């Protein structure tokens, strides 16, 4: 596939039909405020693009071609099928990324804690990942609680226009360091150090 030709042809078609395509897009966007019109307007706008790519003359009314009986059914069946599949895949991905996040939760603190112990480079990373997974396997409840506390803390920071994260990210990182020391069985000072 010649990607450069795709870009050049697309630009030329756009230049020749800019006003019609932009007005059609604006109609599709504004009209999509009513949820039932999203699929037919997206279909109609895509129909405009296909016609323009074929070299056919397009009109602003083409954006409404998705409202014929067959096209409404076709566009909505696509949106529903896509939505269900994307929703399911999205949930699976979310669950998997959460599981990986929990399993690898203690890895970065372990890399720092174990620095200078003979496991450097990629071997140190692999060992830290293994140790993190082992911590989660032996203390799953505590590990999930640490993950949830960090998540909630940082969500609170994010809800405060992101500025709150200047407090919650350092706080949750220190919390993770303390949790890693405790769950890895290492000694750590439990009283905070006062800076003068």
Write the layout of secondary structure elements.
Blueprint: H1 3-31, H2 38-54, H3 69-103, H4 107-113, H5 121-138, H6 140-159, H7 165-184
Helix pairs in contact: 1-2, 2-3, 4-5, 5-6, 6-7
Q: Could you write a compact summary of the structure shown?
A:
By secondary structure, the protein is mainly alpha-helical. Helix content is 74%, strand content 0%. It has helices spanning 3-31, 38-54, 69-103, 107-113, 121-138, 140-159, 165-184.
Fold and architecture overview:
This protein has helices spanning 3-31, 38-54, 69-103, 107-113, 121-138, 140-159, 165-184. It contains 7 helices and no strands. With 196 residues, it is mainly α. It folds into 2 domains: 3-92, no CATH class; 104-184, no CATH class. The model has no long low-confidence stretch (mean pLDDT 90).
Shape: elongated
Q: If you compute it from the alpha carbons, what radius of gyration comes out, rounded to the nearest whole angstrom?
A: 27 Å
Give the biggest beta sheet.
none
Q: Runs with pLDDT <50, length 5+? A: none
* Oligomerization state: single chain
Q: Compute the separation of the termini in Å.
A: 65 Å
- Percent helix range: over 70%
Give, in order, the helices and strands. HHHHHHH
